[in-house]
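User: I would dearly like some help making sense of a protein record. I have put the entry right below:
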Amino acid sequence: MAKKAVQDVPVKGKLVFVRNDFNVPLGAAGEITDDTRIRASLPTLRYLLESGARVVCSSHLGRPKGEVIPDCSLAPVAKRLGELMGKTVAFCPETVGAKAEKAKARLKPGQLLLLENLRFHPGETRNDPAFAAELARGIDLYVDDAFGACHRAHASIDAITRCVPLAVAGLLLKKEIDSLRLAADEPARPYLVILGGAKVSDKIPLLKHLVTKADTILVGGAMAYTFLKARGMHIGYSKVEDECLDTCLEILRRAEAGGVRFLLPMDHIAATRAEANITVRIIRPGEEIPGEMMGLDIGPETVEAYEAEIARARLVFWNGPMGVFEVDTFSGGTMAIALAMAASQAMTIIGGGDSLAAVSQAGVAERIGHISTGGGASLEFLAGDKLPGIEALAEA
């Protein structure tokens, strides 16, 4: 897992290709509504520019599926990146070809160029060697700083590393690897994992792995109801994945056999619909959810129990909300977990996605030990999977 990083190699005067993750949310007018991922890229870019490199940045945005979609252009990113960097960022409206080559050739040490959306080309998601070779033309050094895309075997992540003299990790990617290894390799004990979100099917590989690693696993969100139904509870109209019931029972058996405490919600905030200003009912421990209602958040006793587990842990990893936190009525459980994480003395790790939105909404993001920029990538990393974007980099 030890990979060579950008600080380990000479960069002065070199033409450096940086794969970033600028897949930021855009508003109706094309404005950037959250620049977290752009800000996360700054340390690597500043290091390279201050060290005299000529820098070519690249990223995907959205899912244009190999077509030029104006609403997915990286032009707004170039503007915002320039504002954050405090210097001009050249933008090329093409990714490869004559215009891109001329733009690269004009770069001087300390200057930065952003290419247009990689996914405007079908060769990107196909991991096409020919497209990768075009991206790599004239490049002296490849730097991967896009952890959120490292689990994808795409041309700018995987194939390009075989077309350049050297491929290394950026500062952000190195931080991600170092932080997540705390949980993946020899975690501090007690090691607590909190998982939520809508679908248990998305997290089955992770759960199967974590029942051999964690001391305690807490489950919330809609995915909890598949486990509760598997245990025989009547869950009303709650979302459930019936095809996963047997797998959930298998995971529960594995946890019990391995001495892993596997906690599910004891009480619930239920309603007929996930809407604001709707009448809710607290389903107490031992009660069942009425047929016309669905569980939409963890209840107060579950919150208290989960807070206590966080307080006693030395390492906590959290991915996924405890309820429909986008609706204020059902955000209490998720906000409570975010605040408990911030107050904890443990090393705390957030696995990106909605959990990042939750700690930001709670105003405690700066009090979390590490917030991963890649939800899917962090889950695959912790599940023990090999990520193509990391595997392709040079060994330290």
